[in-house]
Amino acid sequence: MTALTLLLTPWMVPHKVIPWQTAVTMSFLGKVEVIEEYDDEIRSPSLSIKAPAVVRLKRPTLQMKRGVRFSRTNVLLRDGFRCQYCGVKKEARELNYDHVIPRVQGGKTVWDNIVASCYACNSTKRGRTPEQAGMKLLRAPVKPKWLPPAPVMGLSERRIPEAWAGYCASSG
Question: Locate the HNH nuclease domain: which residues (predicted)?
Answer without folding.
Answer: 70-123
